[in-house]
Design a protein that fits this description.
- By secondary structure, the chain is mainly alpha-helical.
- The chain has one domain (8-131).
- Helices cover 74% and strands 0% of the residues.
- The chain contains six helices and no strands.
- It is elongated, with a radius of gyration of 21 Å.
């Protein structure tokens, strides 16, 4: 899937598809549009755009699962909080505090995912071939088959 020297326009389209990760969720639409409009013009742009779409959908899925798990934990932590309120206790239970602190986990995952996409944008803007760790290899094998 590598081209020796992508043009400035090809690098820009590839970088835009990866950089659209900052629009978390909606950025995948930009990747699909870039892939659809450039797939017949440039293999480099088509591969980079398709790779960014898969990466962004995977990130969205991981993020949604993380937020749902946190939400369930947070909801479960409300039960002891409500029972303590009935007992007129002014101290929050440890389980509630832990669940509140764990809200950082989905936020950190989202930040890491966005930084990964931005790294892809920088690398492709420089004209280098870029592959996400697992997605790049798998996608290349799938396209070759």
């Amino acid at each position: 899937m590598t081209e020796s020297n992508p043009t400035q326009e090809e690098r820009l389209f590839a970088a835009l598809s990866h950089g659209s990760v900052i629009l978390f969720g909606m950025g995948a639409v930009a990747g699909v549009v870039i892939w659809a409009t450039q797939k017949d013009r440039s293999r480099y742009v088509a591969f980079q755009a398709l790779q960014s779409v898969v990466y962004q959908f995977a990130g969205l899925l991981v993020s949604m699962v993380a937020w749902c798990c946190w939400g369930a934990l947070y909801f479960a932590s409300m039960i002891p909080l409500l029972t303590m309120a009935e007992q007129n206790s002014s101290e929050a239970p440890w389980f509630f505090l832990v669940s509140l602190f764990l809200m950082a986990v989905p936020l950190i995952l989202m930040a890491i995912w966005i930084l990964g996409g931005m790294w892809g944008a920088v690398r492709t803007l420089q004209g280098r071939d870029f592959r996400y760790l697992v997605i790049g290899e798998q996608l290349e094998r799938w396209l070759s088959a």
